[in-house]
Write a structure and sequence with these properties.
219 residues, mainly beta, 8-stranded mixed sheet, 5-stranded mixed sheet, globular
Length: 219
């Protein structure tokens, strides 16, 4: 394992919506409805604010009347500041990768992911960083969601619309990314709704897993 340099994950957390072909295709007809009437041409970004940070083994609180959904996502950890970086150069700016459970409420608009849906306390469960040199076949990794030990969702990074290198190129055209920032590369089609008392685990090949216990607000 590569242990020569510490990998920092203390920066901003940015998410990419609609980055899996299966999800994109399932929503394609909606893109032509008002007020947008065309497909998104650039990555649709959202943020996970500092209060969303969480770690494996901790509780995630579900409000009583909310629909809480697990979201398996591969996180890209920036190791070197970027500005106007080409896709060919982008890998040199990546320190490593991390498994993430990007909890969310259901989306009303993928063009404008809502703060309420994305930014509640504990809604971003981060695993242990893995150095990029220790990850092979980045574009062919399986992502799995288990609820109480039962497999509920499975996807693959082979289904990405944009690779991490392409995402970094497009974001860094207009906004710098700094060491410690994390980019969440999206979630596959089929988010799983979870209930109070559930134990939810996200696994990604080569990156490990994170587990959360769902607790209803007030308990």
């Amino acid at each position: 394992m590569n242990t020569l340099k510490k990998i920092y994950m203390d920066g901003n957390i940015f998410g990419i919506a609609l980055n899996y072909k299966c999800l994109y295709e399932s929503l394609q007809s909606q893109f032509y409805e008002k007020p947008y009437v065309h497909v998104p041409k650039k990555p649709v970004l959202f943020i996970k604010t500092p209060n969303t940070r969480n770690t494996s083994g901790n509780v995630v609180v579900k409000k009583k009347n909310d629909i809480l959904q697990a979201g398996p996502s591969l996180g890209v950890i920036i190791g070197k500041s970027t500005s106007r970086v080409s896709a060919n150069e982008a890998m040199a700016h990546i320190a490593g990768f991390v498994v993430v459970n990007e909890f969310s409420l259901p989306e009303e608009s993928y063009y404008r992911p809502a703060i309420k849906a994305k930014c509640q306390d504990g809604f971003c469960v981060l695993g242990v960083p893995v150095a990029k040199d220790d990850v092979t076949n980045l574009n062919h990794l399986s992502l799995r969601v288990f609820v109480n030990g039962v497999l509920k969702q499975e996807g693959s990074t082979a289904n990405w619309i944009r690779t991490p290198e392409q995402i970094i190129e497009e974001i860094s055209e207009y906004m710098p990314l700094n060491e410690g920032d994390i980019i969440l590369t999206g979630t596959p089609l089929g988010r799983v709704a979870v209930q109070a008392g559930d134990e939810v685990s996200i696994e990604i090949d080569q990156l490990g897993s994170v587990t959360s216990l769902i607790q209803e607000e007030g308990n």
